[in-house]
Amino acid sequence: MQHFDLVIIGTGSGNGILDERFDDWNVAIVEKGIGPNGAYGGTCLNVGCIPTKMFVHTADIASAPDSGPKLGVGLELQDVRWREIRDRIFGRIDPIAAGGRRYRVEDNPNVTVYEGTGRFTGVKELAVTTTSGSETITADRFVVAAGGRPTIPDVPGLDAVDHHTSDTIMRLDELPRRMAIMGTGFIGAEFAHVFSSLGVEVTLIGRSGQVLRSEDIDISHRFTGIAADRWDLRLNRGETGVERSGGITRLHLDGPAGAEVVEAEVLLIATGRIPNSDLLGAANGGLTTTEDGKIKVDAMQHTSIEGVWALGDISSKHELKHVANHEERVVQHNLLHPGAPMEADHRFVPHAVFSGPQIASVGLTEQDAQAHGIRYVTATQEYADIAYGWAMEDTTGFAKLLADPATGRLLGAHIMGPQAPTLIQPLIQAMHFGLDARSMARGQYWIHPAMPELVENALLNLPLD
Ligand SMILES: Cc1cc2nc3c(=O)[nH]c(=O)nc-3n(C[C@H](O)[C@H](O)[C@H](O)COP(=O)(O)OP(=O)(O)OC[C@H]3O[C@@H](n4cnc5c(N)ncnc54)[C@H](O)[C@@H]3O)c2cc1C
Ligand SMILES: NC(=O)c1ccc[n+]([C@@H]2O[C@H](COP(=O)([O-])OP(=O)(O)OC[C@H]3O[C@@H](n4cnc5c(N)ncnc54)[C@H](O)[C@@H]3O)[C@@H](O)[C@H]2O)c1
């Protein structure tokens, strides 16, 4: 049985822990491989943030003709060369993943890479199953960074029908004529934008009455209206069955108007993700988990077992790469400085949805503030009422802020519209560094007539003394 100073399970953010400060540690990395090609490097690089946003950018270009007429410009989308798009994106990503693997396997003499699935068989004892058999390894310290996977809902007939998740949909050989997407969260909203912009007829199916329902109520409400104009939107629906014949999938739904059937060549399931703690045998390793299967950690990312840390999607309620990376830096510090550990900072975690339009958000939503009895004032600013919004003829985008009436500090910021994930960054900064809204608005220049004037005006609109 091989014993190590440190075992890291998962090569998403977990892979970033090792740098030259660990050169005299005897380390094992365990990675089962992700996505259809069993790649190294985790979700974000191979099947998540990076390829999706490369598709989103292409989709944004492909949908540009839609905004031409209102500006007096006639544009036409001539063709969509799907295989060229796909192969450009993965032609860039696949070699990066392969290079990351090669670096660890060939250039790190102190690191042993086990290419197989790890499963705890006891406290700090892991059985690793590879193609050549099973081996048990132990270590003084473990980092569990094994992420999550798409959930597949229990719909009668789904087992017997070909369907896709975010792991496979980006590698289709052909664009279908029609695509049905189950789930109106991040992944549903992003892929609906990508595929419809490339000419696919999209039906988006949700259980609740709102798209992106965990966003601020006004954002979700306005986005739902836009989604209904762009896609065949079926809300308040339950799936009662699914079957496939003649190359067509038929999804049976139950909704406000009774039973109905959606037909599509391709079905994409985007109904959330579950942590891989079950596959990892977390309980055998003595690791306490929450009701939804996340590994419990304290503020220092330490689990219930001394010397075992967890980070990223397997333990965090924020399934976001920037959070996994932050937690990775915390765990790295705590491995290197056990006498002076640091805490993770989850106070103001932002996120963005790269759909059409884009959305970005940080801090409290209005419904959060109300639910927790937090006093707030709020203000909105439409893109349509700033100079750059006139240039774009934008009619749907806006920023909404919530602030503490006593201190003037921001409690939450929500933006929907062009470049929302970029525009929100100064608001994230203000929240982190405790800058009040008035000082932020009037204590600096705002370039005229640039898009951040949206943020300046939203700040000035707040009813503060
Ligand atoms: C389609 C999609 C788009 C996304 N877009 C964004 C975005 O734009 N911005 C953003 O911030 N976040 C985005 N995310 C979320 C982001 O990808 C994740 O939050 C992040 O990648 C989590 O990193 P991680 O290190 O925790 O886990 P992962 O990157 O999932 O790494 C876990 C690794 O562990 C391996 N593993 C699992 N179990 C075992 C085992 N038992 N033995 C060995 N190895 C194992 C897996 O193969 C995997 O490689 C997106 C996610 C998806 C699915
Ligand atoms: N831009 C980003 O940062 C980004 C992009 C993609 C994914 N992600 C991360 O990945 C996570 C997973 O994304 P996701 O979109 O799968 O999950 P999600 O939780 O955002 O949305 C899933 C949706 O599916 C619904 N749902 C569940 N069962 C259903 C069913 N049977 N039929 C119809 N709808 C059903 C849920 O109610 C929910 O609204 C996100 O929460 C996010 O943290 C982030």
Automatic annotation (TrEMBL):
It comes from the Bacteria. Residues 349-458 form the Pyridine nucleotide-disulphide oxidoreductase dimerisation domain. Disulfide bonds join 44-49. Its EC number is 1.8.1.15. This is Mycothione reductase. Its cofactor is FAD. The active site is at residue 448. InterPro entries: FAD/NAD-bd_sf, FAD/NAD-binding_dom, FAD/NAD-linked_Rdtase_dimer_sf, Pyr_nuc-diS_OxRdtase, Pyr_nucl-diS_OxRdtase_dimer, Pyr_OxRdtase_I_AS. Signal peptide: none annotated. Residues 4-324 form the FAD/NAD(P)-binding domain. FAD binds at residues 53, 118, 313. The keyword Membrane does not apply. Keywords: Disulfide bond, FAD, Flavoprotein, NAD, NADP, Nucleotide-binding, Oxidoreductase, Redox-active center. It comes from Haloactinomyces albus. Binds 1 FAD per subunit. Belongs to the class-I pyridine nucleotide-disulfide oxidoreductase family. NAD(+) binds at residues 183-190, 272. One of its GO terms (molecular function) is mycothione reductase [NAD(P)H] activity. It is an enzyme of class 1 (oxidoreductase).
